[in-house]
Amino acid sequence: xxxxxxxxxxxxxxxxxxxxxxxxxxxxxxxxxxxxxxxxxxxxxxxxxxxxxxxxxxxxxxxxxxxxxxxxxxxxxxxxxxxxxxxxxxxxxxxxxxxxxxxxxxxxxxxxxxxxxxxxxxxxxxxxxxxxxxxxxxxxxxxxxxxxxxxxxxxxxxxxxxxxxxxxxxxxxxxxxxxxxxxxxxxxxxxxxxxxxxxxxxxxxxxxxxxxxxxxxxxxxxxxxxxxxxxxxxxxxxx
Length: 239
Ligand SMILES: Nc1ncnc2c1ncn2[C@@H]1O[C@H](COP(=O)(O)OP(=O)(O)OP(=O)(O)O)[C@@H](O)[C@H]1O
Known about the structure:
Elements: H1 5-8, E1 11-20, E2 23-33, E3 38-42, H2 49-56, E4 62-69, E5 72-73, H3 79-84, E6 87-90, H4 102-107, H5 119-125, H6 127-131, H7 142-155, E7 160-164, H8 172-187, E8 191-195, H9 199-205, E9 208-213, E10 216-222, H10 226-237
Parallel strand pairs: 3-8, 3-9, 6-7, 7-8
Antiparallel strand pairs: 1-2, 1-4, 4-5, 9-10
Helix pairs in contact: 8-9
The protein binds adenosine-5'-triphosphate.
């Protein structure tokens, strides 16, 4: 499929099914993301949002369906290949190496493309990381760990970011800082696919919202449809 089909999507997920052993987690998921967009996957616990991100990143072993990124089919490719195409994944558990310093954590992932964010821009975006450069991963607050996890994927040069619940467990003031960072990334032309339970956080940032239920996208809303759809979304989320 050409990049310009499907409304000019850069990522198209079509009829995606995924399993953990015999247990099925995705039941024919369909959605797309256009270049420069921020799309949020919303839904209750266990709906399949994380599995969707992990499938795109090549981290779910058993799956079927299509995952097309910039004209290329990725569904049968390993994670290293997908990373080299410019997709990066920031998992919910953040994956900070406890025994390494902030600096060592930042320098760990391979640079996969030119245009990785230079360290001075990282510091401008995340001033805390400069102050904490020599601190061990274990000494960081939850917010600092999240900042480091995002900063680390920016270093790689990836321009398509998968963020899994970036605000989980964080204080409101830190949530605001993360929102500001994500807004800046959008302005810089990054494309983002984000899983988020915090609807109020996502509502300010996302261009479109895909509601996930039982391993499928059951409805999609644009930002300008949000006011009219808020009640419906709250029912979907059970809030
Ligand atoms: N490693 C795993 N092994 C077996 N089943 C899993 C595994 N990870 C997830 N599942 C199951 O797959 C389904 C989808 O889970 P997933 O984590 O994708 O949902 P989610 O929408 O991201 O929810 P959450 O916010 O709870 O992470 C759930 O039924 C979950 O129990």
